[in-house]
Design brief:
alpha/beta, N-(1-d-carboxylethyl)-l-norvaline Dehydrogenase, domain 2, 2 domains, about 50% helix, binds NADP nicotinamide-adenine-dinucleotide phosphate
Amino acid sequence: MLKTVIIGSGNVARHLAKAFCEAGLPPVGIYGRNEAAVKELATEVNVPFSTDELIDAELYLICTSDRAIAEVSTKIQNPRAVVAHTSGSLPTNILQGNYHKAAFYPLQTFSKDRILDYSEIPFFIEAEDPAVGEKLMKMASAISTRVSRADYDQRRHLHLAAVFACNFVNHLYAQAEKICELQQIPFEYLLPLIKETASKVENLLPKNAQTGPAVRNDRNVIEKHESLISDEMQLKMYRLLTESIYKTYEL
Ligand SMILES: NC(=O)c1ccc[n+]([C@@H]2O[C@H](COP(=O)([O-])OP(=O)(O)OC[C@H]3O[C@@H](n4cnc5c(N)ncnc54)[C@H](OP(=O)(O)O)[C@@H]3O)[C@@H](O)[C@H]2O)c1
């Protein structure tokens, strides 16, 4: 297994550090620019940290924001090291340096204080060198039972699919919450519906699981809903999604 330094102290850095610790492979260090956050994370997982000199390692996992990956990657000067980023949407050649380049992409939504079952998270590995790919597959397999290889094209399409399946859906929850709040109705009434909507696609294709006025093209209900929406952006979203659903099922 590779001696690993995690770079960054945000959501993914925190969860990967914890996942490696739980797997019995604690990182040899956490490195980052935000001293308070790096120290807090390193203390929590009980590993050394640094905010200036890079700790020596065989694997550097760059878990910074996408826009910082290129800049941060220039700090690594060891040609024998493996350097991997965790982004779904960037190629491995975003990494700027003479070393083994790779991607180590976990397909999950990571928020700081959430408890996750790391063994269920799909990991997607890409590496220029097949032997390096093999080592990263082993590292990821210590955390998760769902580890695959994916090239950049597959990974960026997975990331796109994840934006629809997670970020957009969550934004729609936020719209529902806004509607409830205006009517002083607790959002929690919607939780059983949200849970069932998510769980039924484990057995049904999403296309076969659709219900509601748009799939039935119930114009009467749709017009009533539209008259209840005062927020212009929300009305645009309602109309666009209704049209998309209607056209999907149109005979
Ligand atoms: N969150 C997810 O659900 C998720 C899922 C899969 C993959 N990813 C990928 O994982 C990576 C990290 O995402 P995240 O959600 O963990 O981000 P995040 O919580 O926003 O954390 C970003 C980290 O990057 C550091 N950073 C930002 N700019 C920097 C710079 N110029 N130099 C050094 N450090 C810098 C931040 O430090 P400061 O505290 O100093 O700003 C922070 O530690 C991204 O590539 C993202 O695409 C995220």
